[in-house]
Amino acid sequence: MLNQMKVLTGKQNEGLAQNILLGFIEALLVGIPFVFVYLVIKEMFSAVPDFAYIWTCCGIMTLLFAVRVVVARHVMVSNHGLGYDAGLDIRRNLASKLKKVPMGYLLKVDPGRLNATMLQDVTFTEQIYSHLFSQLIVTTSLVALVVIGLTVEDWRLSVAMCIGLPLAIVVFIALKKAGALLSRKLLDKVAEMTGSLMEYILSIKLLKAYNLAGKRFSKLDDQLKGIQRMSLKHEFLAGVAPLSFITLVELGFATMLLTLVYLYVGGELQPHVAVLFLIVSSRFFRPLVALAMFLAEYSFMQQAANRIEDVLSAPELPEGQQVLDLEPSIEFDKVSFTYADRPVLRSVSFRCEPGTLTALVGPSGSGKTTITSLIARFWDATEGQILMGDTPIKNLTAECLADHISLVFQDVYLFQDTIFNNLTLGISDPDRERVEMVCKATCCWDFICQLPDGLDTVIGEAGASLSGGEKQRLSIARAVLKDAPIVLLDEATASLDPENEYEIQQALSTLIENKTVIIIAHRLGTIVHADQILVLEDGVIVERGKHQTLYDSQGLYHSLWNAERQAHGWKLNSADVTTP
């Protein structure tokens, strides 16, 4: 239980302490009426019952019942409020954590598992505070109070009534430990299925195109059936624990009843005491049974909270300091980077002066995207350092670094929001006229004007209602609007047709003037005017210089250029086409 409390804030811990106190008060309000029941029964068995006294006791019990209803309602609302507040803060903490972890962590973790943690696991954890704590506090307090009171009256019947409780607790704990492993496996399978379901939905267009929708669904269906079988097995094992607990606890009632009859027949028990134990014991086992049922679900809650802790305890990128007026230059000083025990960059050194354009070219997997990712600090370099101006970027805060960099990657993500809000991300007071000007300059304005509400049109999640080229142009406009001194472009025009590509290249050349630009280029014709071209192969810079110098050197760049020219001249020969 202590592991789950780590996810609460200080304010919520105060709320939890308050709820514990309220739960104890509720238990008192449930238990105290039994005292008056005892007094009424005792008075009724007296020689001359005092009915005024009896009615007074009944009145007090009625008042206590009314107070208990008010307190119980407050406890329920407070517990649920605490649970929902905890769930909100846990999700916020998880979202904040994901901003601080290295990109490598996110690449290793299954998106379906993260989705299950953010939604399903947090919901299970909420129930610890909204249901389990309240039930546990009220039940344990009530049982303790009743047992103490009954022991004072007759310890023999009290011991007989509780005789099965210690064994029930031991058996319950043992069976729950046996089922904990299965709970973990089931949650893992559910997370895996969530990932498969997300993959199936996102790839349904591709699957239909290749007539694989049925085959892939069969795989998903097999996972669902496997989860169904495992869930039934889990329910069986999970049900054994509370059923054993209930059986052993209720054996105490039979033992108490036999003891009561024996003592009463032997003249060792007064009638009012016998009636008291019969009444109390009929209600004594109900809260224990309810608690057992809640505890049967606790392994799910515990495993869910443990998985949340796994994410919250993931290593973070070290946080630096805020630095103002940084020179917009980038320098790699003998930078090496290893991912999954595989060297990606090896002792890379170069400098990008302010206001210059640096192009990164090379075969696929040579380390181009890794360089831009390291500048954006999605990872930290394994060796060496990266400087912005004279300051290592690891000494900068994430906010400071983000303020100085605009990024445009091939994989464009747009939120389910208006185009205007998507374009002005991170801009505190956006100027609508400037947004329109940039949209016109980046060839976005024509298709925006054709949308129902123009800039105020809400686009689907991930920009689903737009074409790839339209999303790419909006991404470029978004980077331009940010107006950061350093711009990172990962083949920003790859999704555009030749006409729009030319227009955007002209717009970019004007709009990124006097900025430090680093571009990953697959189309070498777009970077012939770059101030420097870095040619990478197997994580090493093998050539550097301007276009003409590199072309004349007859090295890798020359080979890449000729291969691209040949590819542009390629055409499908009708003689090579066979007809059925």
TrEMBL record:
Determine if ATP-binding is one of this entry's keywords: yes
State where the protein is found: Cell membrane
- Primary residence: membrane
> Molecular function terms in GO for this entry?
ABC-type transporter activity; ATP binding; ATP hydrolysis activity; ATPase-coupled lipid transmembrane transporter activity
Please give the SMART domains that the UniProt record associates with this protein: AAA
- Give every ABC transporter domain span: 330-563
- InterPro entries, sorted: AAA+_ATPase, ABC1_TM_dom, ABC1_TM_sf, ABC_transporter-like_ATP-bd, ABC_transporter-like_CS, P-loop_NTPase, Type_1_exporter
A Gene Ontology CC term for this entry? plasma membrane
- All copies of domain ABC transmembrane type-1, residue ranges: 20-298
Q: In which domain of life is the source organism classified?
A: Bacteria
Coiled coil stretches, renumbered: none
Q: Report the membrane topology from the UniProt record.
A: Multi-pass membrane protein
Does the record's keyword annotation contain Cell inner membrane?
Answer: no
Q: Write the record's keywords in alphabetical order, separated by commas.
A: ATP-binding, Cell membrane, Membrane, Nucleotide-binding, Transmembrane, Transmembrane helix, Transport
Q: What is this protein called?
A: ABC transporter permease
